[in-house]
């Protein structure tokens, strides 16, 4: 049995209460930045496309302080554009298609722990937001 490094998951399993985009930025290779290499942005090792980080607010009411913001990486040649904000608010509801999770061991702490990295093929407005209906 071969277990893939990037395990497919559904958006609803990861964000059962929904999610909101906080911002989108390039993922830079810190070694390239330090060495002043032009265009230090990371490229996806499988596709060769640029990697973008989407900062996301997890809407779960059960999260502790510091746990609500997560990052989802998207590979694309151009910076992904977040969905429109909800009228009268700064909140941009989002759903991710092709969502995967990769487990890793974070050994930068005194006590190592398992961490998770999220990737997606693309982001889009939730179906309710696209149709103009309340969820």
Which key features would you list for this structure?
8 strands, single chain, mainly beta, 135 residues, 8-stranded mixed β-sheet
In words, what does this structure look like?
The protein is mainly beta and 135 residues long. The chain has one domain. Helices cover 10% and strands 36% of the residues. It has three helices and eight strands. It has helices at residues 11-14, 30-34, 127-131; strands at 7-8, 19-26, 51-58, 69-75, 92-97, 100-106, 113-120, 122-124. An eight-stranded mixed β-sheet has the order 1-6-7-4-3-2-5-8, with no helix packed on it. A hairpin with a 6-residue loop joins β6 and β7 (113-120). It is globular, with a radius of gyration of 16 Å. The relative contact order is 0.22. The mean pLDDT is 90.
Task: List strands and helices in order, with pairings.
Blueprint (H helix, E strand, L loop, with lengths): L6 E2 L2 H4 L4 E8 L3 H5 L16 E8 L10 E7 L16 E6 L2 E7 L6 E8 L1 E3 L2 H5 L4
Parallel strand pairs: 4-7
Antiparallel strand pairs: 1-6, 2-3, 2-5, 3-4, 5-8, 6-7
Summarize the structure.
It contains three helices and eight strands.
**Structure annotation, total helices:** 3
The averaged pLDDT comes out at 90
Order of helices and strands: EHEHEEEEEEH
Share of helix among residues? 10-25%
Spatial separation of the terminal alpha carbons: 39 Å
Parts with pLDDT < 50 across at least 5 consecutive residues: none
Strand order of the largest sheet: 1-6-7-4-3-2-5-8
Gyration radius from CA atoms, angstroms: 16 Å
Would you count the extended β strands for me? 8
Number of domains: 1
Judged by helices, strands and strand pairing, the structural class is mainly beta
Major beta-sheet overview:
8 strands, mixed
């Amino acid at each position: 049995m071969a277990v893939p490094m990037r395990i497919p998951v559904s958006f609803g399993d990861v964000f059962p209460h929904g999610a909101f985009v906080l911002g989108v930025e390039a993922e830079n290779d810190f070694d390239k930045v330090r060495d002043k290499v032009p265009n230090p942005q990371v490229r996806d090792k499988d596709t060769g496309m640029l990697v973008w980080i989407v900062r996301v607010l997890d809407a779960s009411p059960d999260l502790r302080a510091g746990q609500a913001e997560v990052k989802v990486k998207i590979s694309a040649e151009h910076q992904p554009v977040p969905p429109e904000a909800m009228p009268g608010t700064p909140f941009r509801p989002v759903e991710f298609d092709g969502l995967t999770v990769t487990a890793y061991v974070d050994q930068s702490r005194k006590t190592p722990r398992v961490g998770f990295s999220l990737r997606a093929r693309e982001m889009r407005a939730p179906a309710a937001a696209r149709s103009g209906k309340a969820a």
